[in-house]
Amino acid sequence: MSNKIKKLKLRLEGFNNLTKSLSFNLYDVCYAKTAQERKDYIAYIDEEYNAQRLTSILTEVTNIIGATILNIARQDYHPQGASVTMLISEQPLDKEPENPEQPGPLPEAVVAHLDKSHICVHTYPEAHPTSGICTFRADIDVSTCGKISPLRALNYLIHSFDADVCNIDYRVRGFTRDIEGVKHYIDHKITSIQNFISQDIILDYQAIDTNNYQDLLFHTKLKRTEVDLDHYLFGGSAKEKLTTKSEREKVRKRLSEEIQEIFYGRNFLQ
Question: 125: helix, coil or strand?
Fold first, then answer.
């Protein structure tokens, strides 16, 4: 007799072989004037987005898309950063889900279906050693095999991380067959990721699309348009931390340049 323990297989509800993957980077930018403030910022972010908090965020994502958590692996790192991965499965399907090209509904309004899928997040806090600029990056992947698109959780995730820059990718892979045997390579309409984001969010950002419709590849970049110093300074207001107008303008310019470099993916100043 084999010593291996045979695990029961999970019954899948429905049948849909399409894999829909939402992957994106979220960046939060901050200014910390002194070396101690930069150290404190890293400590604050590391605690604010520790593995336990990230687990809570991803748990809410599973509620929004109607999934059941099967397994959670999470880890905090030294000196900073955290990772969480969830294996999720479908919930029983009461009715056919809809994937309209519009922002996702509130969690309590969702009826959804998922086959074997996963969600994961990794965080990367860091600080420039001399300029005062600090950044926090979160890499998130939501991959579903089934009838619902992970795009329905996009608004919640952007709100949860209060991002200054977002690089968002969405891809549908594989195919599924109808009852007559015809292959279908996508099962919902999409012309732009932007159409799944609330206008309340879009109005705060500059948005650029790079889409390859033939290969079902969709990419959207978001960059916050206003640099309000009181929002970006760590440990106090702009007038408290930056006593002169010229100093405030210098920091505002530095923050704006950092956001633009991250948005365009290249360094402007060397």
Answer: strand
- What pLDDT score does 105 carry? 36
| pLDDT for residue 114 | 37
For the cut 70, the answer to whether the pLDDT of residue 269 exceeds it is: no
In tens, the pLDDT along 254-267 reads 999 999 999 999 98
CA 203 to chain CA centroid, nearest Å: 18
Alpha-carbon span 7 to 44, nearest angstrom? 42
Look up 118 and say whether it is catalytic.
no
Amino acid of residue 22: L
Confirm whether 120 is a catalytic residue.
no
Does residue 107 lie within any of the structural domains? yes
> What number of CA atoms fall less than 13 Å from residue 44's CA on the CB side?
14
The active-site residue, picked from 89, 117, 143, 160, is 117
CATH number for 157: 3.60.90.10
Instruction: Classify residue 72: in a domain, yes or no.
Output: yes
Structural domain including 196 reads 19-264
The active-site residue, picked from 134, 145, 160, 219, is 145
Active site residue 78: no
How many structural domains compose the chain?
1
pLDDT value for 109: 28
Tell me, yes or no, whether 9 lies in a domain. Answer: no
Residue 4's pLDDT is 54
Q: pLDDT > 70: what percent of the chain? A: 83
In sequence order, what DSSP letters do the residues of 189-216 get, joined into one string? Answer: --S-GGGGS-HHHHTTEEEEE--BGGGT
Confirm whether 2 is domain-assigned.
no
d(CA 8, CA 16): 21
Residue of 122, 128, 188, 231 marked active site:
122
